[in-house]
């Protein structure tokens, strides 16, 4: 029991330390800003198109919201090890696939539009969980891959080739275009120096604490400049 408690304390400590790059900046933000209820979106429209999601993932396209090439690998490799999976491992694999499915428009998001879940704004945010479960199942797969020296070398070459392919595909896609939502402007490198303003707007999601006492004036665009 003492070893279990000790290991849990170590795990919690390392988790806090390794995730500090996320929670520490967030903590700084919350000290100076009030986080309000985010603006509402139509979840079904913001969910990913399944073909765009898969094609973008295979290409490791950085300008679309996808699970990336590694996410696709986390779908394919476990298929060859399903018979060796324990029940917990099958659940992790199921969660990896399910969280990707939930980010797409195949899931009927319109039924959840008027529920508290709509606060997530964009269903593709669930892909963060896909990355978690996908990474876990890939680690399990590699641990189950009992290798001899020959197989170990083949595995190493395969991993290097995968990383090289992902890097090349990412560079090729990222350098070609900057794409916004479907149907909107696509800028190539030649056009990137030309900016077009479609509209001017603002959000109330994150407001500086010092400015909140003036929010009624700000809404009316009333500004006073002191000497």
TrEMBL record:
Entry superkingdom: Bacteria
Record carries keyword Membrane: yes
Keywords recorded for this protein, A-Z: Membrane, Transmembrane, Transmembrane helix
Transmembrane segments: 7-24, 62-81, 124-143, 155-174
Protein name as it appears in the record: Uncharacterized protein
Organism encoding this protein: Enterococcus faecium EnGen0003
């Amino acid at each position: 029991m003492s070893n279990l408690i000790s290991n849990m304390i170590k795990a919690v400590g390392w988790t806090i330390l390794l995730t500090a790059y996320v929670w520490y900046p967030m903590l700084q933000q919350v000290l100076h800003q009030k986080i309000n209820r985010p603006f509402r979106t139509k979840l079904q429209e913001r969910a990913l198109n399944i073909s765009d999601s898969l094609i973008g993932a295979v290409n490791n396209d950085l300008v679309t919201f996808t699970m990336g090439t590694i996410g696709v690998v986390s779908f394919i490799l476990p298929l060859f090890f399903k018979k060796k999976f324990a029940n917990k491992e099958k659940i992790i694999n199921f969660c990896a696939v399910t969280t990707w499915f939930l980010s797409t428009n195949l899931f009927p998001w319109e039924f959840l539009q008027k529920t508290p879940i709509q606060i997530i704004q964009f269903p593709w945010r669930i892909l963060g969980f896909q990355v978690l479960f996908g990474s876990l199942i890939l680690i399990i797969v590699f641990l189950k891959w009992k290798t001899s020296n020959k197989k170990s070398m083949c595995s190493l070459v395969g991993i290097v080739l995968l990383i090289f392919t992902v890097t090349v595909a990412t560079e090729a896609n990222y350098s070609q275009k900057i794409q916004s939502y479907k149907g909107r402007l696509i800028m190539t490198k030649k056009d990137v120096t030309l900016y077009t303003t479609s509209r001017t707007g603002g959000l109330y999601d994150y407001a500086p604490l010092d400015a909140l006492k003036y929010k009624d004036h700000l809404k009316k665009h009333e500004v006073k400049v002191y000497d």
